Amino acid sequence: QVQLVESGGGSVQAGDSLRLSCAASGSDFSTIAMAWFRQGPGKEREFLARITWITGGTFYSDHVKGRFTISRDKAKNTGYLEMDNLKPEDTAVYYCAGRHVLKNDYEYWGQGTQVTVSS
Questions:
Q1: pLDDT of residue 31
Q2: Residue 34: helix, strand or coil by DSSP?
Q3: 56: nearest Cα among 76, 70, 37, 38
Q4: C-alpha span between 88 and 13 (Å, rounded)
Q5: Is the alpha carbon torsion for 109, 79, 58, 36 positive or negative?
Q6: 3-56 confidence digits (pLDDT tens)
Q7: What are phi and psi of 111, to 5 degrees?
Q8: Contact 84, 17 (CB under 8 A)
């Protein structure tokens, strides 16, 4: 069992940067992949990026590649999403999620953190 707690959301201006954190606890993370999703007002939840905990290998959705960076600190059991050049359309609740590397579905979810970008 894995518990995930996001933090770092807030209200920013367009063009600003923000770093979200996801504190993980409760299990051995060597077989875990952590990802970030978001859900904007009236929109479907969308995948943003994924990192394999043990190798640090990453994968990004095309619409955030180059602006968002996913990373993790194994010593702190914490994942991060660095978001640069934020746009109003990035306004959403951001979630971190975890799954076993051999599974397709994300079974562990945080509670979400709100990011609001003003023009």
A1: 85
A2: strand
A3: 70
A4: 8
A5: positive
A6: 999 999 999 999 999 999 999 998 777 789 999 999 999 999 999 999 999 999
A7: -85, -15
A8: yes
